[in-house]
């Protein structure tokens, strides 16, 4: 995949088939001022040090978006903790180190809000990192993501490169995973409402009391934020960050209850039945909200409301069902 011009930057998107990576690819292709370099998993094993070294030596990359990751929900994190920590650490180490070795000056690492302590004050500020215990169910994944942040900071300090990190809130949108067991709350709920609509079900049962609060960001907004942060001048970026705490939260700064999410989803899908909440099921953390004041000070904020984002996601879901992991 490429979008060529004579003096365009060569930009490698690691993980271009995933939800975030594909959104970044769409964003960059629309701008039309770079040449995208991509590889599928079959073409390049990012966990192989030798393969990644050969790739960077041959391709002469100018910028890297590190969106590749092994991801999953609570069930997957609990079942495969070794896979999650090993594969994510290996991909990050190989890409960041070989980017430096081949002369790449600019890299953006995409992390996760799970890097913050389980009991972090709300909204979560960047300085909360390493200030308490992590959520046990996804600790191996979170540790790998924290390592990615610290790799970027360490290579900046030792080698003078400009490697940045962004930490997204809960994402959803085109190319999400709608698998019934391994998906996150929005795709899982969207599929449930859609199937209930098709089957003329009397109600849809939502786990928990409906009172926990969560923040959601449409993936195209995440892509726009990533490109914005990547392209900020170093002076501007450095003024809003610290060499020892350089990551930036990306979110809306707005949350809603799970009940409000379910009611919005019901409207978007067009389900006419009732909502039922199963309070015997766990609620999880009462609230997870990102403090996005640092990102706002850098000149970016989200554009799509939750309802508008869900409408776009549902239209994509309807047009793509044959190809989805359903």
Automatic annotation (TrEMBL):
The feature of type site (Important for catalytic activity) is located at: 112, 114
Q: Report the Gene3D superfamilies cross-referenced here.
A: NAD(P)-binding Rossmann-like Domain (3.40.50.720), UDP-galactose 4-epimerase, domain 1 (3.90.25.10)
Q: Which reaction does it catalyse?
A: GDP-beta-L-fucose + NADP(+) = GDP-4-dehydro-alpha-D-rhamnose + NADPH + H(+)
Instruction: Give the matching Pfam families.
Output: Epimerase (PF01370)
Summarize the protein's role: Catalyzes the two-step NADP-dependent conversion of GDP-4-dehydro-6-deoxy-D-mannose to GDP-fucose, involving an epimerase and a reductase reaction.
Q: Which domain of life is it from?
A: Bacteria
Q: Which HAMAP family match?
A: GDP_fucose_synth
Write the signal peptide boundaries: none
Q: Which family does it belong to?
A: Belongs to the NAD(P)-dependent epimerase/dehydratase family. Fucose synthase subfamily.
UniProt GO BP: 'de novo' GDP-L-fucose biosynthetic process
Q: What is this protein called?
A: GDP-L-fucose synthase
Give the annotated active site: 141
Q: What is its EC number?
A: 1.1.1.271
- What residues does substrate bind to? 192, 207, 214, 283
Domain NAD-dependent epimerase/dehydratase residues, every copy: 11-234
Top class in the EC scheme:
oxidoreductase
The UniProt annotation places NADP(+) binding at: 15-21, 110-113, 145, 168-171, 184
PANTHER family according to UniProt:
GDP-L-FUCOSE SYNTHASE (PTHR43238:SF1)
Q: Record's CDD domains?
A: GDP_FS_SDR_e (cd05239)
Keyword annotations for this protein? Isomerase, Multifunctional enzyme, NADP, Oxidoreductase
